[in-house]
């Protein structure tokens, strides 16, 4: 039995060391390490009574709260692997995820059950567990004699190019290896508190939860509303938050506002800001330099994805350097990085190639998709270790003269929107299920905050009765029932015919040029599960002015 890299084992050891330290805070509620452990144990014992075994996928459908963290540890302590099923997701998407993962148990709360009413699964409500459920740690021997660090810990669904989301299988040892490696960078201790900002559907949430809790720090779960510039300062001070991991655009907006009133940003407990999920722009770095009170804070640009999983490279940005494009830096200690051509040969230094990532923290592969797993997770031709693999990221990059890595763009039709990697093919497939649409193509236009998805459609019948404005609204409303908010196109354009290349494929370059020439339309306000900040404008407060109620 190999348990040195089994998450509940490590967490239980930490509980024994600091039982009374605060582990989780959500608004006015909090749990100590011992309280979190005992509540997770209660759920674990109940799940064991339901027959949960190692490698079994268990759904987790709880809004951000203390209960969300309890459920994660409870499922893991029972030997299961959790599958995040966001209560905010459309019913159709949840149905696809539930059917694909074949979960027959979903941990939820009574306030989070309405979206699961029509799902053929058994619901376990945390707030309705029997009161006599044991508080003690489940004995591993009662779970399974075969439990080990290579068991599954989680299955996270990401956008799929085939039109359906795909589940990424992540093992205990991958998460433990990552937590140990990234701890050497972030350096959490028992005095730290980190802002748990990402949705549980996003892989960054695993880093924001597991790394602090395995190292004795506390986590503060984000509230339903995204904090504005004034609230952010007030909440950071109120909760004593020392580490934040945010979307670059959110941080840029905060910096832009604070730059006009730098006195507001004094005496913050922050020591580390991590930016990930999208490209960090030079403008963001320059804004940071203009605020003296923030220049002593460590500022890290992180790069990663679900399949790796989480952060694979990082760049700690010095305050005395300027870049035309901010690097993604160097690999975390347990990662191997190669930039290769199509023949899997290293490209010359400075040339652009596809980023390949290996090491001890790769995901197992994709659920129910052996061919895709074989295509994306390939044998490492440069390693002497038996079974070593590389993940083909699909990201194009190059080495800079200083030896750091610079991200360039995608190799395929995947795009980054609001911190999520989106396969345009999945959006197109959803559009084609609309009875009035015969052809559909989706492109991403713009960068950063201005990036938006633009859909181009050829209707079954194009006539005077088809209003482009009405059609756009109808299509967007239709997609709301099938896709998360961040995947719904901001514009839907009617075309008589789809532009094609000489080889008969959709001419996406023509669509991009066409999109650039259109009048800029306002983006739809979407506070997505990651914490999207489209159209969220911060109004600076004058010194001494109180925030409105």
Mean pLDDT: 85
Secondary structure: number of strands: 26
Strand order of the largest sheet: 2-1-10-9-11-12-13-14-15
Structural class: alpha/beta
Q: What proportion of the residues form beta strands (DSSP E)?
A: 15-25%
Termini distance? 56 Å
**Count of helical regions:** 14
Major β-sheet profile: 9 strands, mixed
Helix percentage: 25-40%
Low-confidence stretches: 518-549
Morphology: globular
* Rg over C-alpha atoms, rounded to the nearest angstrom: 24 Å
Please tell me about this protein's structure:
- This protein has about 550 residues and is an alpha/beta fold.
- It contains 14 helices and 26 strands.
- Helix 3 links the parallel strand 3 (about 55-60) and strand 4.
- Helix 2 packs across helix 3 (about 65-75), helix 6 (about 170-185) packs across helix 7 (about 205-215) and helix 9 (about 250-260) runs parallel beside helix 10 (about 280-290).
- It is globular, with a radius of gyration of 24 Å.
- It starts with 6 loop residues before the first helix and ends in a 32-residue tail after the last helix.
Detail the topology: elements first, then pairings.
Blueprint: H1 7-17, E1 22-26, E2 29-32, H2 33-49, E3 57-60, H3 66-77, E4 81-84, H4 91-101, E5 105-108, E6 122-125, H5 140-143, E7 152-158, E8 166-171, H6 172-186, E9 193-196, H7 204-213, E10 218-221, H8 229-239, E11 243-246, H9 248-258, E12 272-275, H10 282-289, E13 298-305, E14 310-316, E15 330-331, E16 335-340, E17 353-359, E18 365-366, H11 370-376, E19 377-379, E20 389-399, E21 405-410, E22 414-417, E23 420-423, H12 424-431, E24 437-445, E25 452-459, H13 468-480, E26 491-494, H14 508-517
Parallel strand pairs: 1-10, 3-4, 3-5, 5-6, 9-10, 9-11, 11-12, 12-13, 25-26
Antiparallel strand pairs: 1-2, 7-8, 8-18, 13-14, 14-15, 16-17, 17-20, 19-20, 20-21, 22-23, 24-25
């Amino acid at each position: 039995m190999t348990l040195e890299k089994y998450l509940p084992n490590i967490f239980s050891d930490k509980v024994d060391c600091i039982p009374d330290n605060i582990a989780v805070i959500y608004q006015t509620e909090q749990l100590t390490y011992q309280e979190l452990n005992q509540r997770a144990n209660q759920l674990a014992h109940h799940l064991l009574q339901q027959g949960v075994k190692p490698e079994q996928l268990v759904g987790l459908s709880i809004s951000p709260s203390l209960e969300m963290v309890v459920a994660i540890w409870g499922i893991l302590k029972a030997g299961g692997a959790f599958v995040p099923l966001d209560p905010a997701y459309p019913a159709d998407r949840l149905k696809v995820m539930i059917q694909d993962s074949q979960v027959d148990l979903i941990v939820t709360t009574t306030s989070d059950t309405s979206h699961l009413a029509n799902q053929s699964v058994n619901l376990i409500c945390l707030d309705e567990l029997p009161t006599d459920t044991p508080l003690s740690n489940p004995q591993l021997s009662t779970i399974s004699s075969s439990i080990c660090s290579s068991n599954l810990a989680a299955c996270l669904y990401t956008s799929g190019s085939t039109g359906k989301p795909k589940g990424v299988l992540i093992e205990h040892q991958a998460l433990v290896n990552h937590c140990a490696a990234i701890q050497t960078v972030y350096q959490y201790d028992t005095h730290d508190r980190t802002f748990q900002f990402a949705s549980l559907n996003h892989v960054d949430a695993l880093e924001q939860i597991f790394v602090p809790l395995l190292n004795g720090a506390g986590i503060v779960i984000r509230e339903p509303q995204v904090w504005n510039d004034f609230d952010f300062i007030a909440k950071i001070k109120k909760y004593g938050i020392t580490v934040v991991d945010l979307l670059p655009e959110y941080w840029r907006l905060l910096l832009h506002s604070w730059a006009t009133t730098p006195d507001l940003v004094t005496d913050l407990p922050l020591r580390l800001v991590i930016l990930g999920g999208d490209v960090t722009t030079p403008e963001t770095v320059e804004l940071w330099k203009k605020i003296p009170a923030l220049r002593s804070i460590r500022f890290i640009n992180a790069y990663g994805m679900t399949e790796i999983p989480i952060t694979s490279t990082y760049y700690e940005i010095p305050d005395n350097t300027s870049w035309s494009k901010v690097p993604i830096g160097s690999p975390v200690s347990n990662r191997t990085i190669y930039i290769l051509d199509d023949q899997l040969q290293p490209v010359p230094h400075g040339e652009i190639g596809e980023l390949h990532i290996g090491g001890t923290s790769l995901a197992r592969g994709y659920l129910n998709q052996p061919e895709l797993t074989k295509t994306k997770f390939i044998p490492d031709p440069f390693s002497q270790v038996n079974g070593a693999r590389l993940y083909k990221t699909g990201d194009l990059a190059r080495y800079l003269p200083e030896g750091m890595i610079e991200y360039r763009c995608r190799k395929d039709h995947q795009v980054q929107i609001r911190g999520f990697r989106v396969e345009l093919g999945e959006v197109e497939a959803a559009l084609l299920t609309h009875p009035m649409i015969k052809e559909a193509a989706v492109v991403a236009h713009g960068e950063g905050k201005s990036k938006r998805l633009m859909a181009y459609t050829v209707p079954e019948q194009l006539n005077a009765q088809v209003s482009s404005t009405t059609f756009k609204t109808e299509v967007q409303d239709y997609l709301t029932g099938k896709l998360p908010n961040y995947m719904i196109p901001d514009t839907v354009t009617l075309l008589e015919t789809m532009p094609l290349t000489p080889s008969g494929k959709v001419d996406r370059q023509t669509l991009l040029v066409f999109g650039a020439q259109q009048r800029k339309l306002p983006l739809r306000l979407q506070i997505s599960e990651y914490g999207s900040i489209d159209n969220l404008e911060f109004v600076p407060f004058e010194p001494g002015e109180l925030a409105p109620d």
